[in-house]
Write a structure and sequence with these properties.
The complex is a heterodimer.
Chain A: H1 4-14, H2 35-38, E1 45-51
Chain B: E1 3-9, E2 25-32, H1 39-48, E3 63-67, H2 70-87, E4 94-97, E5 101-103, H3 111-114, H4 117-126, H5 130-134, H6 137-146, H7 152-158, H8 166-177
Parallel strand pairs in B: 3-4
Antiparallel strand pairs in B: 1-2, 1-5
Helix pairs in contact in B: 1-2
The chains are: A alpha+beta, B alpha+beta.
Chain lengths: 52, 180
């Protein structure tokens, strides 16, 4: 089992940045993916942490 | 947040596993859109969510910022020093350069989602491979809300984009709504 701190923080971070406009497409332009996955931005940055 | 994952970093052992971790540290990693959330905000959360003054008992469980590039390094050191001054204590959390991240085994990823077979099964229809599920924004979101994070309002704003069935949508909204 991974550290509970990591499990909890990963879950919390997963909801950050939610609340995108309701006008955003509901259906994926390429079938087979949830719209939010299909619309993931190409340009992202990465952050890496260890909580002990 | 675009993607979340847990894994191992900081060591030299090739292809570590949970039971053969070698010199690595348990780590979490996120891909984020800098237009929607800043690295400063992530650091703020990181410093709040652990005790940076405690001494690590092992490499596996040490606390660290693994910075990607000079700007992350500058911000990590600046916030660390600011926290040390505010607390008047030595900060034990390390600030070290990122080298390589190894994702943990699939059963460690999306802990709350994996504990709910209904949601897991639905998202696995889109992402039958473990790597796809690990990198899914929808999976990260559902995992977070099942872990009782976020707000009902933010969930309502985008739940239509998670690819869930109507019954799962209602279940997740209920999950988010009953906690507040």
């Amino acid at each position: 089992m991974m550290s509970r701190l990591h499990i909890a923080l990963v879950a919390m971070l997963g909801t950050l940045g939610t609340g995108q406009s309701a006008a955003a497409p509901v259906t994926a332009p390429n079938a087979g993916l949830p719209a939010i996955d299909a619309a993931a931005p190409a340009k992202t940055e990465t952050a890496t942490f260890a909580l002990g | 947040m675009i993607r979340t994952r847990v894994g191992y970093a900081g060591g030299k052992k090739e292809n570590p596993t949970y039971h053969q971790l070698g010199d690595h540290t348990e780590t979490l990693e996120v891909d984020y859109d800098p237009a929607r959330i800043s690295y400063e905000k992530l650091l703020e959360i990181f410093w709040e969510e652990h005790n940076p003054t405690s001494t690590s008992w092992s490499t596996q469980y040490k606390a660290a910022v693994f910075y990607h590039g000079d700007e992350q390094k500058r911000l990590a050191l600046a916030t660390r020093d600011s926290l040390a001054a505010r607390l008047g204590k030595t900060i034990r959390t390390e600030v070290i350069p990122f080298s390589r991240f190894y994702p943990a085994e699939a059963y460690h990823q999306k802990y709350y989602l994996r504990g709910n077979k209904q949601f897991l099964k639905e998202l696995q229809r889109y992402h039958p491979q473990d790597e796809g599920l690990m990198n899914s924004t929808a999976a990260a979101r559902v995992n977070g809300y099942l872990g009782r994070n976020g707000t009902a309002e933010s969930l309502k704003a985008e739940i239509d984009r998670y690819g869930l069935s109507e019954s799962s949508r209602q279940a997740l909204l209920h999950e988010a709504g009953v906690k507040r």
